[in-house]
Amino acid sequence: MLNKSIVRLAVPLVVGALALTGCGDSGADGDTIKIAFQGPLSGDNVALGENEQNGVKLAIDQANAKGDLGFKLEYVASDDQGLPDKATAAAQKVIDDESVVAVVGPAFSGATNTASPLYAEAGLVTVSPSATNPTLTDPKNNFTSLLRGVPNDSMQGAGMATYYAKKLKAKKVYLIDDKTDYGAGLAGVAEKGLKAAGIEVVRKSVPQKTPDYSATAKDVVNSKADALIYAGYYQDAAPFAKKLKEAGYKGAAISGDGTNDGKFIELAGAASEGWFLTCPCTDATVEAGTKQFAADYQKAFNRAPGTYSAESYDITNMIIEQIKAAKGKVDREGLRDALKKATYKGLTKTFSFDENGEFKGTDVYLYQVKDGKIAYQGNINQLAG
Amino acid sequence: MSLQEFWDYLVLGVMLGSLYAVIAIGYTLVYGVLQLINFAHSEVFMLGAYGSLIVLQLLDPGDSPSALASIGFVAMAMAGSALFGGVTAYGLEKVAYRPLRRRGAPRLIFLITAIGASFFLYNLAGKLFGRDPLTLPDMYENRDVFSVFGAGVNITQMLQFLTAVVMMVGLDLVVNRTKLGKGIRAVAQDAEVASLMGVDIDRVISRTFVIGGVLGGVAGFLFANLNQVSYTMGFIPGITAFAAAVVGGIGNIRGAMAGGVLIGVVETMTVPLLGDEWRSVSAMVVLILVLMFRPMGILGKQVGRAA
């Protein structure tokens, strides 16, 4: 009796084990190379993640479609919801997949901060199209696998400060950060720039997901500031913009790339009118170099490219170029070292990095919400004059 | 802070507080009859907001509806949120709590079930309605209609405050003047004796949930007017309102109202004095102080045994 039941148990176990090993074998296909994207693909700021994801996908699909690779590229999505506490799991998922050789992302600064030590240990290169907190490339961090494909917030914050000081001649600026790594970093730089220009600054922190912005809006009006900087993401900028309008705020308002998305206008409605938005990114639908890209993107995803779509596309192509140069025979460390030294002329700008992985380049662009659309204005320093 | 600014913030605080009060009533009612902290109430609130959004998207107010149409849209949206809130709360009671009650499950199991139901509902909402935040369409042109102590009050705020007051007064009348109210009070005091006196406990509990759900749902709609609609919107107002219910004395309806307004005013006053990041901290400090000196809450008294 005993033997029989052992056999009964053992048969399915053995069959199961065989099936599992079978799976393992079929998964390791030598000719498939994977490129991952890590960013918010669900959660509160999902639009910012999707913009980038689509850029990555488009680049991979186009490379595969050309048919001259000699290997097959595959896209891997890793969702961190833009949150630091979800970033570890998201990074580990990518690292555990051995056929992933490079990561585009992480998209947000906080998540990058958490995930980068893991990537550094794994030797897996990450090129972020949008994590702009200045401290990320501090050599003390030892984020040896992190490359930044975008000028950091020092440039964006300084650009905002210059624009307010020179162009709008602001006297008093109300400066808000959203307590995220991104918002606090951006606000810190802007504060320095404004103070250097002799402008009075009221600095406040308003955490993300504050349920009611009425009191804050009132505080802005009562402070008699003639200009405002909101350093945070669109999800919170939108209700805040609405409350500001209700409170009767008449001054200028500016926000950074975290707000630079059509979703901001959709959520804030008429209250978004007149808001300035900065971004180290160009408008893919306006700039001549990205017209074709914008059309392809529209065709593939049935919408216009958003913030950092074109930059993500460029970064992915830069990675693909390096894989091609190695004829598809790449390991993680090799690709990382190659990318660190690479110079790539993309559609949006030329990508190259200093020894800390920091982007070499300083251009920041200004946008303004006009008639319910984000209108591209041009290089912020040139506009400030 | 100048005197005028003080009035400005006080008015804003009372408005916000009246919303917390309406949500807090949901916690208090359920606690009164079941001795259960219904942590899924924040999801009832969230789904109420989606209910009004769905109704408004179906009706589509367009760019500038007339005054009469505006009233219609607001009424329909409110009805939608009340329906969603009520149905969710009814369903919760039926699916999550009643079977436990039938089996005489211990208190702790109810609490765990409540948290589980909350997780389930908000993730379900994220799946169904998308995880992007959404905004209610404009139903009217929001402008100041009158002022209180020099503080301007706009249409949204007026709507928020009046609705809250009407609902609270109405509930107070229901509980104190009607047969259902008598039943609720009886079950809250001693369910066993109430059932011996011929009160149908299941029916009373189920209706209590529906009332709390309707109030919570409408509060969700009003809150969505203040901010926006998202599947995670329930958590922070839910926790704050729970604190308000405890501050007022959990199980006590008028206490929940008082606690809600108190917490709303304290939170709002914190913004100019200490800054936004201290809002929740000061609300919780109020909670701690009240619990230290009056553990049963401001208006609380010894509550009855559980059903």
Précis, in short:
Chain A: InterPro entries: Leu-bd, Leu_Ile_Val-bd, Peripla_BP_I. Chain A: One of its GO terms (biological process) is amino acid transport. The complex is a heterodimer of chains A (385) and B (307). With 385 residues, chain A is of the alpha/beta class.
> Any idea what the CATH architecture of the largest domain in chain A is?
3-Layer(aba) Sandwich
CATH superfamily (homologous) name of the largest domain in chain A? Response regulator
Number of helices of chain B: 11
User: How is the largest sheet of chain A built, in terms of strand order?
Assistant: 7-6-8-9-10-13-14
Total helical elements of chain A: 13
CATH class of chain B: Mainly Alpha
Low-confidence stretches of chain B: 303-307
CATH architecture of chain B: Orthogonal Bundle
The portion of residues assigned to helices of chain B is: over 70%
Strand order of the largest sheet of chain B: 1-2
Structural summary, described in words:
The complex is a heterodimer of chains A (385) and B (307). By secondary structure, chain A is of the alpha/beta class. In chain A, the strands form 3 sheets. A 7-stranded mixed beta sheet of chain A has the order 7-6-8-9-10-13-14. Chain A has a 5-stranded parallel beta sheet with strand order 2-1-3-4-5, with helices on both faces. Chain A has a two-stranded antiparallel ribbon with strand order 11-12. Chain A has 2 domains: 32-152 and 285-352, Response regulator (Rossmann fold, 3-Layer(aba) Sandwich); 153-279 and 365-384, 3-Layer(aba) Sandwich (Rossmann fold). In chain A, helix 6 (181-196) links the parallel strand 6 and strand 7 (200-205). The termini of chain A are far apart. Chain A is globular, with a radius of gyration of 23 Å. The model of chain A is unreliable at 20-29 (pLDDT under 50). Chain A is built from 13 helices and 14 strands. Helices cover 46% and strands 18% of the residues of chain A. A two-stranded antiparallel sheet of chain B has the order 1-2. Chain B has a single domain (3-293), classed as Orthogonal Bundle (ABC transporter involved in vitamin B12 uptake, BtuC), CATH 1.10.3470. The relative contact order of chain B is 0.21. Chain B contains 11 helices and 2 strands; from the N terminus they run ααααββααααααα. With 307 residues, chain B is an all-alpha fold. In chain B, helix 2 packs across helix 8 (201-226). In chain B, a hairpin with a 2-residue loop joins strand 1 (144-148) and strand 2 (151-154). In chain B, 74% of the residues lie in helices and 3% in strands. Chain B has helices spanning 3-34, 41-59, 67-102, 107-129, 155-177, 179-189, 191-196, 201-226, 235-248, 253-273, 279-293, and strands spanning 144-148, 151-154. Classes of the chains: A alpha/beta (385), B mainly alpha (307). The A-B interface holds A 42-44, 46-47, 179, 204-207, 209-216, 218-219, 222, 235, 238-239, 246, 248, 263, 266-269 and B 5, 8-9, 12-13, 15-16, 126, 131-135, 138, 142, 152, 154, 156-157, 223, 226-228, 230, 232-233, 236-237, 240, 267-268, 271-272, 275-277, 279. Chain A: It comes from Streptomyces thermolilacinus SPC6. Chain A: Pfam families: Peripla_BP_6 (PF13458).
